Amino acid sequence: MKSLRMKLLVFIFTVFGLGLWFAPANAQNTKSSINTTINIAEYDILYLTDFIDAKTQNLNSAVSGFSVDLVGAQQVPPLQIRIYMKVLVQLRGDAHAEQLLEGLSHDIPFTGRLTLTARDFVKAAGGIAVLYPLGANSNIENSNLKKRITDFAQTTSAAPPGTYQITVKALPQGTTDPNNSYGGDSKTIVIPYSAVDEVFVEINDPRNGSYSNNLAPTFSWTSTEPNVTVRVYEAGLNHHSPQDALTGGNPYLEENVVGTNTLTYPANAKRQLQENKAYVLQIEANVSSSRGPMKSVSQPVVFRITNDNLGSILDYFLNSVSGNASATYSTLRADPTKWIPWSPYGNITLNGNMLSESDLQVLLKELSTQQDVKLELSVENQ
Amino acid sequence: MTKKIIIIGVFTLLGVLSLGQVGKQDKKDISAYIVKVIRDVNMKSPSKGWQKAVPLSTLKSGYEVKTDKGSLAMILFADQSKLILREKSIVTIKGEVKGKEILSRSVHMDRGNIIFNVKKAETEQFRFSSPISVASIRGTLGGYIAGGNADSLTIVDGAAEFTNSISGKKGSVGAGQTGVTDSTGNFKVGKANALTLNNIRLSQNLGDIDSGGIGPDFGHLKSKQTGSVRVNLSSFQGKAIAASLFYRKQNVQTFTELPLTITGQVATGQLPANKVKYPKLEYYLSIKLNDGSIILVPEDGTTKPAFVPVEAVRCELRIPGQTGSLQKKVVVLKWNE
Questions:
Q1: What CA–CA distances, in Å, run from A184 to A69, A187, A220, A265, B153?
Q2: With an 8 Å Cβ cutoff, are A374 and B336 in contact?
Q3: C-beta separation of A172 from A84 below 8 A
Q4: Predicted-complex ipTM score
Q5: Contact B321 A341 (CB under 8 A)
């Protein structure tokens, strides 16, 4: 699939530098069979600038990953054949496909095995399969469509997302009818993105800032790419943001997941989740491009392993008191803050003296009986 | 037969005499206490000269009390009847009691101004007198002024009988009325001046404000810290045999008794930390004297206790926590306790 995409683009640019002459065909009376295979690398993102010579706007003859293999019976003397190529394009948002180019090469000798590379389609490189228009009044390319593609590439440097269908056939000498061929191949390439940030990957569960006492939580996500990598990092006490945690340590878990959008923290993971710790989850979608593998990552999500007993105690108390303290606390506990008491950060203290969880319960219970007590609640950033 | 009658008569006579003897032994001079002294107040017993009155000085029948300019004395009787002797007044207190029953009680005032709040009794009347008038009072709040040439009796609550001693004219003075007598024998009753009525009402509240110098000294009370209480009993001249502090936190219904330890002229005690709470400690003192009577300070402390401010302890509860974006935020709760 990806090789087809490559092939398509190669052909798009091949036509840029071609002079087109149509050579009259010598009809071949005896037809041979030639197995034709288009080899083209498949990419999610294809950078046109890597395939085009910026000065001549011709196909770059050094493009790798594209070839056409022609295999048939050994021919002595060599059989004269000509290469026919057609490219149909349906850009994203278009109702139907349009023909981008259609051309035919001069006759070339075929001895039973021939491999054509990008170089063979470039006139300036002395290519043997340079394409020309089929008829005297025809153009090899659809200039309007070509302009749309090149305009798009000027802003993103990538090929516009869409479906590209490429057809290659081996025709008998002197033939112009593509239906009369020794054999051919057709490949459809889908290019879904023009940039890596078009790749959608989002974590559904856990929600950011959530907590659970489940040591084997199940993660779920939505991604336009089926191939993702799930990574879990521990948030250390010195990490003040999820990004700190992502860059500050090795992942607790790194799991490649293909074809599904859920993962339960494996029981056999080398490092198990622990209570009273915070973790950062990030899902990475793997994207192929003509410039190599690229990554699209989700927003990191913080989740914590705790039963939040202290938070429950405070909820019970502060929800029952009147005034600003209750409102401030409720805001703190709700989205987006999602504050919870966090013992790893330090002890609960009353006038500097440490309080245990049960001490706190007793204190709040006593406070709740004192109706005339005016509570002031403030939040300090550390 | 004659013998029998003589014997019965002798025994009957002895019985009657015996009963009479017992009754005579129970009668005692009435006593009262000066519970409040402002500036210069002097007192005089029948056998001694004038001496400075101090709070809880005991007054017996025949004692005189004198207030100088700008001074005031409050006199409290066992039945909680109260007299407020205003400036430039001289009174003589007389009376008898039998057990708890007050047989007679009178205050003679040659010149002066007195506010009275007399508790209602079944039989006994409180009698005020001057050279030209007599007021018989039972369960009344009012004021009596002996001015020399004219006296007035103003009644706020209740009623009293007012008599001009010179002419014998008399009449009832009711609530909101003032009776006036003069040295020429006139007597009249009319509507009391509103200002006068109000002054009487305000004056009788003076006794609620402080305890006349025998109030406890708590030092500086701080919330949730052990407190100490010290009561100077020197005014009782050794008559106090027991003392207790009844205290409670604000908004608490019941009082807790703290028996005080009497050492010499001082009673002391310790308040437990958990009972000392901001913003105040309400209390009253109960002092038992060697005659069996009990003095409450303030006198109506059971319903209107005095209070001492308790300094708040500023409490700060710090709860470290984490936000959903890993920020460290400390919730700080502060309150006064």
A1: 10, 10, 44, 49, 135
A2: yes
A3: no
A4: 0.72
A5: yes
CATH number of the CATH domain containing B138 = 2.60.120.1440
* A340: contact with B, CB 8 A cutoff: yes
Are residues B218 and B281 in contact, defined by beta-carbon separation less than 8 angstroms? yes
Whether B258 and B218 have beta carbons less than 8 Å apart is answered as no
Name the closest residue on chain B to residue A311, using Cα atoms: B321
Q: In this structure, are strands A348-350 and A340-341 parallel, antiparallel, or unpaired? A: unpaired
Contacts of B328 in chain A (CB under 8 A): 240, 342, 345, 381-382
Chain B contacts in chain A segment 291-320 (CB below 8 A):
302, 304, 310, 314
- Strand-pairing partners, residue A62, are none
pTM across the whole model: 0.57
Q: Are residues B160 and B71 in the same domain?
A: yes
Let me know whether B159 and B189 are in one domain. yes
pLDDT: which is higher, A206 or A2:
A206
CB–CB contact B323 A245 (8 Å): no
Burial grade of A375 (CB within 10 A; 0-12, 13-18, 19 or more): buried
The answer to whether A279 and A253 are in contact (CB under 8 A) is: no
pLDDT digits (tens, 9 = 90+) for B97-126: 887 777 888 999 988 999 988 877 666 778
- Å from B137 to nearest chain A CA? 46
Answer yes or no: is B90 within a domain: yes
Q: Is B244 found in the same domain as B199?
A: no
In chain A, residues under CATH classification 2.60.40.10 are 197-305
Q: Are residues B193 and B72 part of one domain?
A: yes
Report the domain count for chain B: 2
* CATH class of residue range A197-305: mainly beta
Cross-chain Cβ contact B331/A332 below 8 Å: yes
Closest-CA residue of chain A to B317: A350
Chain B contacts of A208, Cβ < 8 Å?
324-325
In this structure, is the dihedral angle defined by the CA atoms of residues B249, B255, B261 and B264, taken in order, positive or negative? positive
Residues B156 and B290 both lie in one domain: no
B124-172 per-position pLDDT tens digit: 778 999 999 999 987 788 999 998 889 999 998 888 999 999 999 999 9
Q: From A328, which residue of chain B is nearest by alpha-carbon distance?
A: B331
The residue of chain B nearest to residue A346, with distances taken between CA atoms, is B320
Determine, yes or no, domain membership for B14: no
Closest Cβ–Cβ partner in A348, A375, A382 for B319: A348
Residue-range definition of the domain harbouring residue B250:
214-314
CA A258 to chain B, closest CA, distance in angstroms equals: 29
Q: Which of B280, B330, B335 to mutate to test the interface with A (most CBs of A within 10 A)?
A: B330
Choosing from B208, B228, B262, the residue where a domain stops is: B208
**With left for phi above 0 and alpha for psi between -120 and 50, is residue B168 left, alpha or beta?**
left
